[in-house]
Every structure is written in structure tokens, then in C-alpha cells.
């Protein structure tokens, strides 16, 4: 979903994990954190990187930026894993990172620090304003598209050319 005037959400791509009467929570998947790679993170956590590729870690959102999350395919589940619909699984415990390092983890995954969160009704209200665009979950956008291309690819998958978007709403 694109942002809402908050620079932290400018061209944001957020994989929603929860959106119900109690509030909403999602993981940002469209921005890499400069200077933090998976191997560096694993080393800080005293986990041998093993065979895990040294990929960038994503900025999951402004809430609890020290907390890690792994968004992954549904071919793996561990302690605390939560299946999100039929699309992906969210795990925030170290066992998934250890499994990835050992080559025994999910087939497709990404690692993020922090999350985006909204109180009850807050996201529903924001969605009625200019700046948001919701698309169906597309696993290939999450796992197979380069981070810097996810925003434009999500629009393109919905049949929209983002080059034709304007920041100024019209009036009828």
C-alpha cells in the first residue's frame, strides 16, 4: 500500500498480517535498511550464518524497529509461526533464522526489523483518504521481485501504470 503523507510511508509496500476490529499490523517489504545485512544480523544474534545468503534486511516499520520478523512461504512453520491467509507465514522467533542459516528453513523468505501498526479503526479511517492503494497478495511481488521494484510491480499487477499517478486529488 502506498503511504499517507507520512514520509516513513512514502512509496511503502506493506504486507498486511492482521486487520480486524482490534487494529492492524503489517510488515514493510519495500525498503532496505542501509548497513544491515542478514549475516550481520545473525552474527549479532550469535547465530552462525551457515549457508544463508547475505541479503539486505528490510525496514518493517517504525514500531519496535529492534524487533525482527521473517515473512516466509508456508512450507515451513516453527514456534510462534502465524499463517497469514493462504499467502505467507509470519515468524518472529529465532528458530526460523537458525533454520534458514542451516538450509532447513522456508523455501522463500525475507527478514525485516520493525512493523507498521494501527489502533482499532485507525487504518480503516486512513484507507478512506488519498494515498492508499490495496492490492491482493502476490507472492511473486514479495519473494521474487527486487525490493526497489515492489511498489511499481504491485501497481502494475493491478493494471495501473504508476507513472500516471498524481499526488494531487481532483474534484468532481
TrEMBL record:
InterPro entries per the UniProt record, alphabetical: AlgH-like
Endpoints of the signal sequence: none
GO cellular component, one term: cytosol
Top-rank taxon, per record: Bacteria
Family label: Belongs to the UPF0301 (AlgH) family.
HAMAP family recorded: UPF0301
The protein's name in its UniProt record: UPF0301 protein BSL82_16820
Amino acid at each position: 500500500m502506498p503511504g499517507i503523507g507520512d514520509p516513513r510511508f512514502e512509496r511503502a509496500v506493506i504486507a498486511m498480517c492482521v486487520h480486524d476490529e482490534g487494529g492492524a499490523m503489517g510488515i514493510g517489504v519495500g525498503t532496505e535498511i542501509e548497513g544491515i545485512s542478514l549475516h550481520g544480523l545473525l552474527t549479532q544474534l550469535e547465530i552462525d550464518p551457515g549457508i544463508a545468503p547475505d541479503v539486505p534486511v528490510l525496514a518493517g516499520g517504525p514500531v519496535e524497529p529492534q524487533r525482527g520478523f521473517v515473512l516466509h512461504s508456508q512450507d515451513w512453520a516453527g514456534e510462534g509461526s502465524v499463517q497469514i491467509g493462504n499467502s505467507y507465514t509470519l515468524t518472529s522467533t529465532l528458530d526460523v533464522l537458525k533454520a534458514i542459516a542451516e538450509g532447513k528453513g522456508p523455501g522463500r523468505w525475507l527478514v525485516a526489523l520493525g512493523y507498521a501498526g494501527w489502533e482499532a479503526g485507525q487504518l480503516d479511517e486512513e484507507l478512506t483518504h488519498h494515498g492508499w492503494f490495496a492490492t491482493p497478495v502476490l507472492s511473486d511481488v514479495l519473494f521474487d521481485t527486487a525490493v526497489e521494484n515492489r511498489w511499481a510491480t504491485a501497481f502494475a499487477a493491478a493494471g495501473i501504470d504508476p507513472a500516471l499517478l498524481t499526488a494531487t486529488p481532483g474534484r468532481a
